[in-house]
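[Automated response] Your request has been received and processed.

Submitted sequence:
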Amino acid sequence: MASVKFSNVEKWFGETGAVRDFSIEAQNGEFIVLVGPSGCGKTTLLRLLAGLEELDSGDIFINDHLVNDVASKDRDIAMVFQNYALYPHMDVFNNMAFGLKHRKYPKDEIKNRVQEAAEILRIEKLLERKPKELSGGEKQRVALGRAIVRHPKVFLFDEPLSNLDAKLRVQMRAEIKKLHSQLKTTMIYVTHDQVEAMTMGDRIAIMNEGRSQQVGSPLEVYQNPANLFVAGFIGSPSMNLITGYVKDGQLTNEKISIDLSEAIEVKELEGMQVILGIRPEDVHLSEDGLELPLLVAEPLGNETLLHMDGGQNILVAKVQIEETKGMGNIPKIKFDLDKIYLFFGYGYRVSMLFKQCMLFGFLQIAFHHFGTHFFNSIFRNPN
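Generated structure:
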């Protein structure tokens, strides 16, 4: 096992900042997931840790040992790739044993390590087959086995499930999580799939445009998103985001008016444009609710997703299918006001606890006295 630490790491390709001022520390035996949209820098981070790319600035430590200038082969890590990277002319045994043979391990030890890994992954009967005779899931197990036999300090996974079908992805998620509990080895896993991140990681780091947006447990980032990007990225279906102005305690736009006064103190936000976030499961059908035209009803077994016309945005509610009987084409909805989030337009989250945040009073005064230039300098784009 090993700890891994990124400290203010940066990597640039020309004028493009692939990774910018990134810091995180993975403890011994921890499962860390790096998640974000394509091009956010997560695979570049993995390649920097593996020694396949050179840092522009910052430091990387493995077990408190600085590895910036350590060759890839000497970092004692194993990487599992998206495309399996199996040798087509070798059988499963020799694919798994290749790295050990290259390092001149004794034949008996190679045989024992391959057999041990094959038993863990339940592929003992596949050892004499060639890759072309394997299914996608079996190929992925062989790729995992090739990493396991190394007994590395750290496992790196670069979107290993993206080539599998949906059912097999669910199965392999459980397999990798089980593998982690058996080996108790530090694992760093890269994916663009937030469902994978939420179900597999001890902690997840959400990335966007090369920067870390938030690091925390899956439950923490789901229930307490740090900014607008995290709120919109984590969760399936995505969080509803409603833009409006605060006036007399109401958030209003051309379609929606929501009374916020029962949920939070909004005096400090009077006259300001904000974005309200609420998850689909916290939007409920109610006889005395807000009427919005129904666009699409999407049945999902015992639940239904209702897509409604919210003006600038489509509003989604996740409700039990029994609730939709007799609903009609204009559902009446209510928000669970205990579950709302407010964000400034630039993406920063407005605290729900205004009584503990006297800063907002100062900001409002500064805004009125010094204008938008001051305000923009404080709340500049976090990305």
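Summary generated for your ticket: Residues 166-183 form the longest helix (18 residues). Confidence is low (pLDDT under 50) at residues 352-358, 378-382.
If you did not submit this request, please reply to this message.
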